[in-house]
């Protein structure tokens, strides 16, 4: 019996996820970004989060060699930015409204929350790397509707 990778991917898409943009600073000191839906909390004490990066990404070296990264949790207003940074070769943050951080990699303006992280570890996870970050600082907004990804499409949570 063969394993159907496409059907597996579609089944995974049945789990709705939030959408985030991860930023880091390249060796040439240019901030770069990538869209992910694999962001999750790991620990409250110490404060840690993780996200996963495709080993075939053209941004793999930047993120796996970076000493830190910033995670911006996206709202529905960020759908265009999310689509842009999800594509290969579209890693420049030019034209995107940003917020400076103490760590260096910027946060996206008007993100629902952002987390400045020191890279704690990187692990192999099949065709992805699992990047663990220690949260140094964070901020969040009260207003906004989260951007959600479900079955290959963007959406939003219904507000009660």
Q: Percent of residues in helical segments?
A: 10-25%
Order of helices and strands: HEEEEEHEHEEEEEE
Any idea of the CATH class?
A: Mainly Beta
Question: Strand tally, please?
Answer: 12
Return the CATH architecture: Roll
- Give the number of helices: 3
The fraction of residues in strands falls at 35-45%
Radius of gyration: 15 Å
CATH topology: Pnp Oxidase, Chain A
The CATH H-level homologous superfamily: Electron Transport, Fmn-binding Protein, Chain A
The profile of the biggest β sheet is: 7 strands, antiparallel
Describe, in plain words, how this protein is organized in 3D.
The model has no long low-confidence stretch (mean pLDDT 93). Helix content is 14%, strand content 44%. The strands form 3 sheets. Strands 3-2-6-9-10-5-4 form a 7-stranded antiparallel sheet. Strands 1-11-12 form a 3-stranded antiparallel sheet, with no helix packed on it. A two-stranded antiparallel ribbon has the order 7-8. It has 160 residues and is mainly beta. The protein has 3 helices and 12 strands. β11 (147-150) and β12 (153-156) form a beta hairpin. The chain has one domain: Electron Transport, Fmn-binding Protein, Chain A (Pnp Oxidase, Chain A), CATH 2.30.110. It starts with a helix and ends with a strand.
